[in-house]
Amino acid sequence: MTWLVADGEGVTLRLHIQPGAKKTEVVGLHGEALKIRLAAPPVDGKANACLIAFLADRLGVARAAISLLSGESSRAKRVHVSGVTDAEARARLA
Asked: What digits encode the pLDDT tens for the residues 32-57?
């Protein structure tokens, strides 16, 4: 299993999230997940909102194109992004 799986509509990302960091950034791989540090704290959905905004900006898609599949209250998350290819996602998140 890899951190990025393409389907006909977009890509599914396997992420490891570290909330409460100094700045929001992609760190690299954490096992078989892409590690992302978030400046937002893990309270009241702020970290999830920050993650969606960050991914939308980095991948050049609308926030509505991003859906949280699993891990709403966990560091391990699966996110689906519509309208982006495997190659585009890898390049923009590298």
From this structure: 999 999 999 999 999 999 999 999 99
Query: In whole angstroms, what is the distance from residue 26 CA to residue 35 CA?
Result: 6
Band of pLDDT at residue 94, cut at 50, 70 and 90 = confident
Decide which of 3.30.1200.10, 3.40.30.10, 3.40.50.1370, 3.40.190.10 is the CATH code for 4-93: 3.30.1200.10
Q: Are residues 30 and 49 in contact, defined by beta-carbon separation less than 8 angstroms? A: no
- pTM of full prediction above 0.90: yes
Number of Cβ atoms within 10 Å of the Cβ of 63: 12
